[in-house]
């Protein structure tokens, strides 16, 4: 294959550094995310995973470095040099963001249907029947009963809220989804179901994703490639199976060794 | 500009001092220049409580002159406490003629209604606004609502209408029904019934909105398009009554329902007293 026909990366991080006062939250992070790829970021609490994710998703401005994104129609853009209006438009059309706590990503005061329909209405959908139709369709895709369409997320279980949050993000047909511990705080069977759902959706919709997790099992199941962070720096990266089966760095070895056997 | 004729112990013309009036006029000019945009202003303490029309009264004080004729209505009526006291206030401090006739007034300060009699060129309608921010109930952060306005991100407003249809089968909001002004800003028309929303659209009169507690002024210049938000398959509708006014027989005006005896006998009468009296 010649260089011209190679796909370009969907998202490139270049020398991302973020400090909070004197504390370095992430330091000189570089990577490319290719279309259709799921990249995992693992590491212990406080290793800078979430800060990095927020920098990538445009929610935090890094102190140095750039995040280059290949848009669907307008070429490549530097996320942090875009106007706020364009960045916000991008984040609610081409991107999705799944929070660990579904309450942060959902509008708890309005029905499931309104939650899913919000992105559609934000880009100009004005036909109630059609919005409701897509909401019902997405509710089914995330395996929530159709008769819960008009119920508020406050009446949903933790797992259902997380699935609703996923539907709310995917309804606009994003190309890239950021996930911050999407299964954290859920019990194991619910976790398995959500992982199964996510894996299916990522494959069917050809999504790219950046997934932050401290759970190596989740990383093994969902991600193609893995970055291990410690103290704000990436200390090891490679194919997921390779990193988990043959960890090179002492910290990664410790991390893999500390998975509790069942 | 009215001459400043301060005598010992008296108030300045129209109660507010001249500097304050200039500040409010600047806010009004900006509001007229950017229809529907909420302009902050330095609201003053007024001799009536918040919620009784401190915003409207400051706007009126800033624009009133000796040649004006003032009408004040509260829920459509000229004879309620709020209307009477504000009218008397301006008759006293601004030395203006007052009226209850919509056609004769040059300034109409209003709470909760737009007069039934069509307004004319040159008239000014001053609204008393309790909550100027239409997105407030959906987004509590002021910094965020300002950003949403600046970037015209109005999906969340539509979400509230969606929710209303999902729950009630129709858009159940009956007052303070959100409108889009001149295709740009989403505006709260103050708590007028949605029955009055069509009267705001391309009205020949200048509409000024004053919120005293929240210290915001916004405006709709004459002949500006004002569109009530809706869905393609759930278009905007106004209230309808099967009865007519018990006094004047009007079938076109906004009717108040009254219980008239202990047996629960009901009566419907025009909320606009001037309109109703004019027809009898």
Summarize, please.
Chain A is α/β, with parallel strands linked by helices and 262 residues long. Chain A is 37% helix and 24% strand.
Strand content of chain B: 15-25%
Rounded to an integer in angstroms, the radius of gyration calculated over CA atoms of chain A is 19 Å
Q: How many strands in all of chain A?
A: 10
Helix content of chain A: 25-40%
Low-confidence stretches of chain A: none
Poorly predicted segments of chain B: none
Shape of chain A: globular
Shape of chain B: globular
Describe the structure.
- The complex is a heterodimer of chains A (262) and B (280).
- By secondary structure, chain A is α/β, with parallel strands linked by helices.
- Helices cover 37% and strands 24% of the residues of chain A.
- Chain A is built from ten helices and ten strands.
- Chain A has helices at residues 49-56, 84-93, 102-105, 112-122, 128-141, 158-170, 188-204, 216-222, 240-245, 250-257; strands at 11-20, 23-33, 38-42, 64-70, 76-78, 95-98, 176-180, 208-213, 225-230, 233-239.
- In chain A, helix 7 (188-204) links the parallel strand 7 (176-180) and strand 8 (208-213).
- Chain B is of the alpha/beta class.
- Chain B is 26% helix and 18% strand.
- Chain B has seven helices and twelve strands.
- In chain B, the strands form three sheets. Chain B has a seven-stranded mixed sheet with strand order 1-9-8-5-4-2-3. In chain B, strands 7-6-10 form a three-stranded antiparallel sheet. Chain B has a two-stranded antiparallel sheet with strand order 11-12.
- In chain B, a hairpin with a 3-residue loop joins strand 6 and strand 7 (185-187).
- Chain B is globular.
- The model of chain B has no long low-confidence stretch (mean pLDDT 94).
- The A-B interface holds A 84-85, 88, 107, 110-111, 113-114, 117-119, 121-123, 126-129, 131-132, 149-150 and B 147, 151, 153-156, 158-160, 162-163, 165-167, 230-234.
